[in-house]
Amino acid sequence: MKRGLEHATACVRPCPPAWENRRVPPIPSPQNAARIQPNATPAELIRNFCIIAHIDHGKSTLADRMLQLTGVVDARAMRAQYLDRMDIERERGITIKSQAVRMPWEVDGTPHALNMIDTPGHVDFTYEVSRSLAACEGAVLLVDAAQGIEAQTLANLYLAMENDLAIIPVLNKIDLPAAQPEKYAEEIAGLVGVDPESVLRVSGKTGVGVEALLDRIVEEVPAPQGDPEAPARAMIFDSVYDTYRGVVTYVRVIDGSLNPREKIVMMSTRATHELLEIGVTSPEPQPTKGLGVGEVGYLITGVKDVRQSKVGDTVTNAGKPATDALGGYSDPKPMVFSGLYPVDGSDYPALRDALDKLKLNDAALNYEPETSVALGFGFRVGFLGLLHLEIVRERLEREFDLDLISTAPNVIYEVTLEDNTVVTVTNPSEFPGGKIKEIREPIVKATILCPSEFIGAVMELCQTKRGVLGGMDHISQERVEMRYTLPLAEIVFDFFDQLKSRTRGYASLDYETSGDQAADLVKVDILLQGDHVDAFSAIAHRDKAYAYGVMMTGKLKDLIPRQQFEVPIQAAIGARVIARETIRAMRKDVLAKCYGGDISRKRKLLEKQKEGKKRMKTIGSVEVPKDAFIAALSSDSAAVKDAKDKRK
Amino acid sequence: MPSLPEGVPVPEPRGPREAPQRSEDASWGGGDGRLPPWVASSPAGVAPGGSGTAGARPFGVYVHVPFCTVRCGYCDFNTYTASELGGGASQVAYATTALREVDLASKVLADVGLPQRPVSTVFFGGGTPTMLPAAHLARILAGVRDAWGLEPGAEVTTEANPDSVTPEYLAVLAEAGFTRVSFGMQSAVPHVLATLERTHDPLRIPDVVRWARDAGLDVSLDLIYGTPGESLDDWRTSVETALATGVDHVSAYALVVEQGTKMAAQVRRGEVTLPDEDDQAAKYELADALLTEAGLTWYEVSNWARGDEHACRHNLAYWRGHDWWGVGPGAHSYVAAATEHGEAGAAEAAGVRWWNVKHPRRYAALLEAGTSPGAGRELLTPAEHHLERVMLGVRLREGLDLGVLSPSARTAVGGLVARGLLDGRAAISGRGVLTLRGRLLADTVVRELTD
Ligand SMILES: Nc1nc2c(ncn2[C@@H]2O[C@H](COP(=O)(O)OP(=O)(O)OP(=O)(O)O)[C@@H](O)[C@H]2O)c(=O)[nH]1
Ligand SMILES: C[S@@+](CC[C@H](N)C(=O)[O-])C[C@H]1O[C@@H](n2cnc3c(N)ncnc32)[C@H](O)[C@@H]1O
Ligand code: SF4
Ligand SMILES: [Mg+2]
Predict the structure, then answer these.
(1) CATH among 3.40.50.2300, 3.40.190.10, 3.30.70.870, 3.40.30.10 for A336-409
(2) Which chain B residues are closer than 8 Å to A606 by Cβ?
């Protein structure tokens, strides 16, 4: 949806875009460039900043123009959203991982080394943003000039202010006919506490205003401060497992310097490593003679054990170690849990290995082994949200060549039994059977921004989701901010889609956890041919259990292909059946016509069917396609249709 | 279809994401149409011999006639109406063009070293072969006879649309050596015929059958079941009407809505609703009951005949894995390797299937230039050959030799008998023969027998 035609049309325009037109770009001359070599750049010439915004407001596109203007990516190599390198990012048109790039920029004859971090905008990746902020002294707060402030604009601004960063508010997409820069400049100015005139206006698409923005960054973002003589201290803010290079660790140097061929120490584990390579990203990795105070770059140590490079850890010199580690990051708490199982049980060790490696690059990932009667050995994995779940599953499948099933996501529950023992339930199948005194579920404080005309629709939606209105403010004449307390379980699934559809796409949402509350919840079980399928069990509010049962049995009936025998599907609370469907026995699968010319075609069809069989899980004696699991457990009906189409 | 560059193999159109199959032979581009040497002799000097040798295998010829007066909404056969053709590939010249391929075929087979084999069966299919003057069909048949000779008692069939023949026409065919005609009756019920966009008058069926029999031709009727809107009673009427003509052979096909047809678009737009698989199964069972009662027994999943002598030997050859040459645009051909996989000196592939360019104009142009009209081919791996053998063999009432199965597949036979998909007695005597229920679930059976 996102990556629309704009790019295509931009390329065929008759006149060259503004950024190709400028006279002499302030790219430092060779003499000047020598002054900003890595490991030899005085801290006062360094600027570390990130670009933060609501999803889709154009961070990565703005980053593209910066890469071009500073000459680190030439016109030939350029492609839209250059820094969205993962296939999954390009396909979905969203940023998932932050990316740091070093760029030269000259202002009034003085060269500077800019370190820019493009961050993701989706609420599930807020943690990624907060780590990036910790490596910077300034933030470009980007706002779509046709949309104005949205929920993640507020959330990310809040984070940046918490980190004491210099904020540079910028309106983007001013080339759009629908842009209202005057109006939104007021809005932002009010929020950040500046003069509306000082809000920069740019277009990441045409490049207008981006040079001025770079100048402004040099002017307003403070240079990093640190002690070049002190023992080295560098903060690990990201790391990634690369098949060719091994573990690549991204750091920001606070004090001292790191140099090639020195031994380094990870302060939390005291483990010592050889430094095989040290460098900066610009935007391809470039080995350097080291990294000095305030610089951002990467280290390759050749460690085999991926757990040795922990995000938030401090790196120091083995020869001259620091005594105090830097304050790390607090690990984000997972909000949603789901079981991940290999379709082929023998892939379990590969899945464990893949999770260990992915965890490097995704510190928010949490997992523990678990077993399922239906699915065998797998992991219970904690995620920051549903998009996070989807991305992790997809990355595991693509980057590690695994075939996975994920079970219905759920939140965490605290169940107190009559005898006052407390059971923490992260998996519906652990839900205790005995007498229950109280069940507590997590709640969130949600902020919803939307045009005033939709207040009624939003309230109605929140009510069906057991929400309690906390307050409401007008942020402008037409737009309101509504604050709700909602059960987490009600919003992680399809809340956002429903919110979007009821507000014609105009509402935005942000939320953060906020304790728990008692609730009347029950466990709904699903039975296939009388066999309990633990993967489909769910914990639901008593009022919604019946609807869940009807929905799930109905979905499964559509998704599970007919077998050679009749298969009853039931939903039950304890022993009480609340919904039932039947898949009738298959009666015919043969292709009636088979002429000479049909033979190859028919053989290929059979070969494909046999391939398909490999992607089936057998539950009892019922063969369930993997896609049926995914579709049954996902909230949108498009997935159900997809899975059905695939079967044909 | 865009025009094709010379000499480039053109695989059959396939789904956009489907990976190219391993067996497809990318280096082959038609050219002189040469076949791999192993179809005639085994490598490493082992002399060809034994039952598997090509010299001893029956050889059939299929002639595709790619013309129809109108295109029926459900049909995705390689056929063209006059307006679709737009000149350049005239029907008048078709016999001459087809005979060029017959010429080429006899050269290619001789060049590769296959001994001359008289043809056991010839089948003219379409399209509508009877769009051509009877004399043209006769000429093509004569050309086949000249090239290889016909076996004594050879079966020569043509497909025909009920509204495309007259008694005189059929007499000319019989005179020329045709022995059999297969009419596309499809249904006896007007509203079903209308949905299928068939143009013929159902009342004409008994007449055309009588004319053909009077001419001395064996007759078969093709029926289609599961047309949108067809009731079980409609279907009964169609089968009974077919039987009332006294024919000795009936083919009954479940309607397949092929991608890209007009009917597929109608289904997609919700204009017609397909009957479900239960309906198709019930209709199959009804057809089997009515046909059997009338003395026609099944000899293949979709084919019933009054005794073995009325079975279509040409089609049986497809299912038995015999060699055939397909003449005409889009026609497929098959030649097995001289030695079987596993035998001493077995060839690197188990057989070769190839297919011609689809468009009649290009087909004609290639032949005129003296080039093979072959568009692509696949060299079957032993595993593919095995899957085909099971898939095709199990469709027949004579059944599959269970001895060809892998040991693990043989263990599946017990379960298939227990579940009533394979006949128990036949299994004990070493043949895999489908039960009535098994015929409907033949794909499941094949899958389990090849796992
Ligand atoms: N007209 C116009 N479109 C823009 C501009 N900047 C970005 N876009 C479009 O807005 C969409 C989102 O751009 P991205 O750069 O991917 O946005 P993002 O903020 O990086 O998105 P996330 O990383 O997913 O949060 C794309 O379709 C861009 O082409 C601009 O200045 N003008
Ligand atoms: C090659 S076709 C055409 C023969 C002749 N032109 C006619 O239509 O009568 C032979 C038979 O295949 C069957 N057939 C064609 N298309 C079909 C489809 N989509 N589904 C099922 N059977 C089909 C019809 O029964 C038809 O008679
Ligand atoms: S007449 Fe036969 S071949 Fe021609 S379009 Fe109709 S079904 Fe197809
Ligand atoms: Mg982005």
Answers:
(1) 3.30.70.870
(2) 387, 391, 443, 446-447, 450
